[in-house]
Amino acid sequence: MGKAIDTNGKPYSRSLLVALLLIGTFCTVLNQTILSTAFPTLMKAFDVNTSTVQWLTTGFLLVNGIMIPISAWLINTISSKWLYIGAMSIFLVGTILCWSAISFPMLLIGRLVQAVGVGVSMPLLQTMMLTIFPANKRGTAMGLAGIVIGLAPAIGPTLSGWVIDNLSWRDLFGMIIPIVIVVIIASFWVMRSVLETEKSPLDIWSVLLSTVGFGSMLYGFSSVGDDGWGSAKVLTTLIVGLIFVVLFIWRQLRMDDPFLNFRVYKSKEFTVAAILSSVVMMAMVGVEMVIPLYLQMVKGMSAFHSGLTLLAGALMMGVMSPITGRAFDRFGAKRLAIMGMFLLTVGTLPFAWITKDSSTLYIVILYAIRMFGIAMVMMPATTAGMNALPMNLISHGTAVNNTQRQVASSVGTAILVSVLTNVTKNQMPAKHVLTSNPLGYANGAINATLSGYHAAFWIAIGFSVLALVVAFFLKGSNHSTHVTDVQPETDKGGAA
């Protein structure tokens, strides 16, 4: 990649900086899913129930989601070198707290501290990759970022299962600590300030509205699986969240120098790309949660083996992300997105007819096809959207896109899990059959469970078809070279 110049006019090694960014952020993003198969072990270790242990993931995702909108202000205000070192240091403190936890509250606090670091490091990675590469190489750059954003969460459950089976739950955190320490130390020499910054005051009202709004909304959607859509808790948190998010957006649109600039939606290309990547997240994350449930509850697999079944798909995404990134630089996003969404739809359709006898290899192949399709869409669509924005809005575009995807992931999971639960419950045979015809009840219960999975997969197919339609609205060519010509003044009202 050769030498490049930082904001102080000094040359630096872009290859080393990118490698450091990818390794550090991989460690942080991996933590989103690394506990998913460790819950039973943690429940025994700390004597807590299922709904309590779930907070290790729910709380993590909540804080992560709250931090992403704040990241735009941080990226524009603090030197990228010190912001990265700060984010990785906060993540390290959280990881050490988790590793040394002697009680469940201590473990939970560690997870929440980790999430603060992740909520900054992931948007910072994307913003830096979009800035330090020339416009015609951004697809390749975001393809590399896709390895982190796509592969790390996908291998989390498999890695977690292996560690739990062979080592201790503390090793889930212990194995990351030395890597993060090396990344932080190396950052003092390798990391550079590559993003232009300007001092702007922190708008406390925006922080409060954003935190309550997105926090409440994400919590509401995460509660649907346990409490159902009709629950007072779910409805209250969703309504409160929606009101505060609307107030937050209204405030941003009235500010000359907004905390999070929603004017990025004035770009049709950015809006189409953001909608596409959000619907793809709904199709991906929901199914990622439902397939392991099917493998464990219907086919009787262990948590580790169910995670292993999804590993081929995860690796497919990791391998394909850089390749589709290069393809974007040559062909643009539209053809890639249409082909990817077609593969995602084709790969999801057979799940609507799976039975308890469906072979594991069949599931592995179908899941790999789905992830191949997602890899063709996710980063190319994101890059196309970002290329439509002027440089001074890249950090805002990244934060808006990531926030929208986080909410979409929660919505997708909530819808699929609630459909699965409700259909299964409604199809279950009557309790009296259990005593009069135990075999008939067992058979009926399996059929009811399968009906629930079939219904959930039909919803996922609906998401895939919707995303396929949206893909046709992307522009046909790679117009990334236009970005460098756009001056900051095109952002009306962006100046203070």
Automatic annotation (TrEMBL):
InterPro entries: EmrB-like, MFS, MFS_dom, MFS_trans_sf. Keywords: Cell membrane, Membrane, Transmembrane, Transmembrane helix, Transport. Residues 17-479 form the Major facilitator superfamily (MFS) profile domain. The keyword Chaperone does not apply. It is found in: Cell membrane. One of its GO terms (molecular function) is transmembrane transporter activity. The keyword Transport applies. Pfam families: MFS_1. The chain crosses the membrane at residues 55-75, 82-102, 108-133, 140-160, 172-190, 202-222, 228-250, 270-291, 303-324, 336-354, 360-381, 455-474. It is a multi-pass membrane protein. GO terms for cellular component: plasma membrane. PROSITE patterns: MFS. NCBIfam families: efflux_EmrB (TIGR00711). This is Multidrug efflux MFS transporter.
